[in-house]
Task: structure prediction
Amino acid sequence: MSRISTVILVCAAALAAAVPASAGIRFFSYDPADDATRRVAGDLTFQFKQHLIFTTLLNIRSTEGEANADLKPTDEHVLGAGGLSRLIGRAAQERDLYAVLPDGQGADLIHAFCPGSNRAWLAFGRLVEGRPLRVWVLGDAPSGPARLCQTFEFNYRGEWKLPTGLGVPPGDLKVPHFPY
Result:
């Protein structure tokens, strides 16, 4: 085996070992950065799974209330011709698309974020500690293709740190008015 092959094999093994350790559940809280976001969304917390080079959003929670909704990654083809570029522009960096699941409180969130819609999608960029976040809210239209409903701007507030070794799935934790 050549020296280059050995180096590649060692690097691949190190990356494979690092992936499970880095795929933890994290919670980032954000404050509204403008009046429109404050009025419609308020303070939100996003639950996500941190992988080595990407994140997967799992849930949105109202930081000050009891509302929450689950999210599911989806393909932009559900938005119709032109997809995200048609709705938010080609220059927008937020390209990770999630469907808001309508079960539980998800339907209420859809109606609040995108009045008149029965289905909604959220387009995000990667959640990065300490950085602001833009969220594009897209919804189905009674007739025609998906539409842009809202653009939310958030300022990073902080991360919820969960104790290790609880044995309780993070989605099952219910702490009123957390993180206050």
